[in-house]
Amino acid sequence: MHLLPFAWLVLGCVFCFCQAAPTNDDDFVSYSEFQVWKITTRSNEENKLVLQMIRHYGFEAWKDSDAISAPIGVLIPPPFLEEMKLKLAATNISYEVEISDLQTAINDENASVNVSAITTKMAHKMDWTSYHRLDDIYGYLKYLADTYPKLVRLIDIGTSYEDRPLYVVRISNSSSPDTQPAVWIDLGIHAREWISPAVATYILHQLVEEPTNVGLLLNVDWYIMPIMNPDGYEYTHMKNRLWRKTRSKTSSKKCRGVDANRNFGYQWGGAGSSRDPCAIKFRGANAFSEPETLATSNFITEKSKQIKETRLIGRNQSASIIVTRWSCPLKISFYQHRESCQ
């Protein structure tokens, strides 16, 4: 599986100064002349100073750390480039420019879909050398269900805010599916993390189309939701590459969307979330305000007798990691309740 470098940088983002929102929500958002800097500090004082600068200007930190000498990645908008250079020079803090023009990096990140492969394999357009649009991904799910009906079932669990279907793929070679322990995997909860749905489809490919992996299907069902946030995912392809939230309307006329990962019911509104509709970690007006999170919770609740007994969960969410649970004591199994570990 070939992974494209810019997507990994996007995954490292931990908080945002904004979504670079256009005046009109239908406008294309350009990140021309935006730069990504890697700032290296040598003491606690310097580290605190840089983090204070980031908070003061409302910049987006792509990598932040409280550890001394750990680089801090920052997205700098064009109007602040010179000012930040002067401030860092005045405090003798070193930095280097990792991306000199973010829009150029965005334009170069996604390879063209392999046309020859599509010509010789008309059943679907999926490959793992480029990032695909939602239609291609959903087309691949339908292909798997049609081609391997005894193994794969495509389940429509609801619709998104913009009326796109929410799909879960069940993989089971049991004569009595839905009765044995199950693995739940959900990905694509943050729109701009394109690597996440790519990982989901690659897992599906390995489980369904690679005979050497048949052992992974013994005595276990798999439920895989490749894209929990299809509206946001499409928006990143069409309008704003760095969009992260859902696309629902909020109480703010100028800010849309909810961080779906902070919209589940367990400890909703706790640390790490925001009540500000314009914040990137906006929790929503209430728990399960988003149709995407509500549909996901309802499905897992329905399958709780299966899923709660399973010890494995995989989600590629932020940074180069697999996240097993969110803010949960280690002694609590993820599968006790889906919404309890975001």
TrEMBL record:
- Pfam families associated with the record: Peptidase_M14, Propep_M14
User: Which Gene Ontology terms cover its molecular function?
Assistant: metallocarboxypeptidase activity; zinc ion binding
| InterPro entries associated with the record | CARBOXYPEPT_ZN_1, M14A-like_propep, M14A_act_pep, Peptidase_M14
Protein keywords: Carboxypeptidase, Disulfide bond, Hydrolase, Metal-binding, Metalloprotease, Protease, Signal, Zinc
GO process annotations (BP) = proteolysis
Q: Which residues form a coiled coil?
A: none
Q: Which GO terms describe its cellular component?
A: extracellular space
Query: Domain Peptidase M14, which positions?
Result: 130-342
- Quick check: keyword Cytoplasm in the entry? no
Name the needed cofactors: Zn(2+)
Q: Which SUPFAM superfamilies match?
A: Protease propeptides/inhibitors (SSF54897), Zn-dependent exopeptidases (SSF53187)
Zinc in keyword set:
yes
Which family does the UniProt entry place this protein in? Answer: Belongs to the peptidase M14 family.
Record protein name field:
Zinc carboxypeptidase
